[in-house]
Design a protein that fits this description.
448 residues, alpha/beta, GMP Synthetase, Chain A, domain 3, Rossmann fold, Chromosomal Replication Initiator Protein Dnaa, Chain: A, five-stranded parallel β-sheet, three-stranded mixed β-sheet, binds adenosine-5'-diphosphate, binds magnesium ion
Amino acid sequence: MDLDKLWQSTMGEMEIQLSKANFSMWLRNSRPLDWREGTLYVSLPSTFAKNWVEDKYYKNILGILRNTDSSIKKVEFVINQKAQAQKTAPANNAPEAAAGGLEFGSAELETNLNPRYTLSSFVVGPSNELAYTAAKAIIEKIGKYNPFFIYGGVGLGKTHLIQAIGNEIVSKYDRKIKPKYIPSEQYTREVVWGLRNDRIESVKKKYRDADVLIIDDIQFIGGKEKTEEEFFHTFNALYESNKQIIISSDRPPQSIPTLEARLRSRFEGGFVADIGYPEYEMRVAIIQSKLQEAGRSLREDVVDLIARRLRKNVRELEGVLKKLVFLQEQKGGEVSRAAAEDIIDKAVKNTSKQVGDAQILKAVAEFFNVTIEDIVSHNRRKEIVEPRQIAMYLLREISDLSYPYIGEKMGRDHTTAIHSYEKINQEINRNSSLNQKILTIKDIIYKS
Ligand code: ADP
Ligand code: MG
């Protein structure tokens, strides 16, 4: 049996079934190793990839393989560290090698959607899987999961995903279903304009005629009473006629304090999904996907460096990427690691907010209704252990403090600090109530 051929043709089929971004993230670096007694051994670059592929694609892959050769009984995935090295190799045959692929396109007049945002360029992993799956379901059955409420921090792909839903709907239904996209600030401006110029009826009509209303960053309408009122009626009108409503926000409905209760409960009654921070592998895949879109490449170690250093905001990561690509073009040679480091340092310095340790501890204490003394004490009660771990997590996450420093601050050693950070960091993707707690605490921190 020619293993390479067999695997290639299987991957060919998988590539058709999956989106481009997904395929290159999870399967591009798989390699057949061996075939023994009905088992095909295949290498993958990391445990992370192995778990994901086994979980999501095992059945499909085995099915395709068995169609070709029924003597294959199972597939075993093996982690191969060496494959990691190939991971960041620049993608050849980039389809749209147009210059400036990293730039924004412009929005369509009627839908206000930017065609640049597609599902196939959206990299999926544990931190956004639920939201992505929901998006697919919504495209299939418009109006069934209503409203769809997606929330998550800045630059994590909310706008990308909700606009992609709109764009997919336009192409899938051959323009017969009309989505309309609007950031909530713009909606507010239109409502204010309508009220002032006696044209509110035309604003009303504009949004009630949509088949799918996509409203971005809804948190900004909180507290703007007239706009909320208007939106509430539009929401109800659309909802009652089974039109799809898609809403994004930087936090869950219950954490938008100024939002009117009746709107909040409407939102809570829908399909609520969160987007968390992308894992390292996802960040690498996102970088590769952006580079490929732009028909550009960067050195492997530079890609790795960007993915390691920029963990919390994909937009920021893209900003650095653009700078590096630009620099590379100007110099006409590869950007060195040192130059990349320099650019990343500047980007990180610009965005990290100056938040003090005391502020973080105070906010955690306030949220859990415990004292700061409790948090730094050696008390092992569950009600104290959780705030303590979250405090260590936030000291790292927000202030980027070293583990030894955090340990000392909390009266512990650095391994405890590492353990706490890692534990919360993993858990946050699986446990949405934990994620919510942390979002709310961050809110308290940034408001103080
Ligand atoms: P948000 O609306 O959550 O603040 P955006 O949707 O504007 O974030 O995302 C910021 C940038 O990061 C966009 O250019 C988007 O394409 C990119 N991005 C974020 N998440 C992903 C992802 N999972 N796959 C590909 N690109 C992403
Ligand atoms: Mg956005």
